[in-house]
Amino acid sequence: QPVWDTESTQLFRTRFKAVSPKRVDTPGHGIGNRFLRAGVEVDRYGRAVAYHICEDDFPRSGSGRWERIPRELPTGRPAMLHIFEPVEDGQTRGANQFYSVMERLKMLDSLQATQLQSAIVKAMYAATIESDLDTEKAFEYIAGAPQGQKDNPLINILDKFSTWYDTNSVTLGGVKIPHLFPGDDLKLQTAQDSDNGFSALEQALLRYIAA
């Protein structure tokens, strides 16, 4: 937008002010009509005659005042320079070249985040303690009818485990071999291959986006 700088001491006082496309919008963020399309006012031939610009720095904030800027001044000089490459008749905004691949870009971002979370989870545990408690006995503990905290079979078995490991420290520090609860087994975990075809899928998405 060409503006006249009254505070300048230079010979030429005409300045060009860049206007964010987000500020060019229908007053009140309305739907618009035949002669007002996304903040661009057009005549019956589709030629832009004026632009409605929100005076606030961010749309949908502040007082929400709009200013109508004509495309040309009465002298014929341009008051607004709207530069974009239209691809069809009646277009008042430039088309983003990334529109066709935005879904794939979001998909790639989600895929990479999920892959990272998977790798973190697989590398989180260095070792696990496995118990020989069979399924029948486990359901017996879980489904036992509680008659208070002391008579609850599940509470009793968990209390025994807690008491045992409170008095017998299970650590992986140094070369100490911990003495486990009878029936438990210490199993060291190794990080598995977290790729699982991820690299090939990622490359396919990148090739699709680049094309």
UniProtKB/TrEMBL annotation:
Q: Name one Pfam family in it.
A: Phage_portal_2
GO MF annotation: an example: structural molecule activity
Coiled-coil stretches are none
* GO biological process annotation, one example: virion assembly
User: Can you name this protein?
Assistant: Phage portal protein
Q: Which organism is it from?
A: Escherichia coli
